[in-house]
Amino acid sequence: MESGSSKLFSLAQQLRVYKPPLNEAEESTGKLRSHSMSPEKKAAVLICLFEGEEGDLRVILTKRSSGLSTHSGEVSLPGGKAEEADKDDGVTATREADEEIGLHPSLVDVVAFLQPFLSQHLLRVTPVVGILWDRKAFNPTPNPSEVEAVFDAPLEMFLKDENRRSEEIEWMGKRHLLHFFDYNTGDQEYVIWGLTSRILIRAASVVYQRPPAFIEDIPNFEYSRM
After folding, report:
1. Concatenated DSSP letters for 21-48?
2. Does the predicted model carry a pTM greater than 0.90?
């Protein structure tokens, strides 16, 4: 399966030894990380990386169907809620990616798990990093009830201050920065924001081993304890 370039091999080696730090967000949502936690409170998303034609690292994204009851029409990472049969977050993320866009789990090499994020619906969302060694082996087949479009974007974009804007919001009693990234591909225009942009900023920081060129969050921001 590992037929990719030396860049992907090096990235896989780097990420396989990655250990997410215990940060304030995890401490404040510690009970969400319990193994006894019910599946409906857990979710996982897949950060599927591959090497583009120009040699850059790219990530697969989706535009959610306009008919969905939540986050309709928004850009997101493939993923969703855990099911009882899922043995871990990697299974959840790859299963959901298969159901949503036809990305078969056998094509994805799971190499790392990032620290969980807390969604606005109080789900513990774990980002799962996977490598797609052979991009040509993946023929996107979006499930129209869930996904309107499948596209990809350069991962490094989420460390740059270009095509980015932000606004300050209050969530769970604390001030927070909400980042928006404008991305054009072909004749399509997408806005990547919210939890998806937060996860991709963190993923890009881990992959490229450097912080973003902008303030990621308001200094001294703390998540409110649940």
Report:
1. ---HHHHHTGGGG-TTS-GGGEEEEEEE
2. no
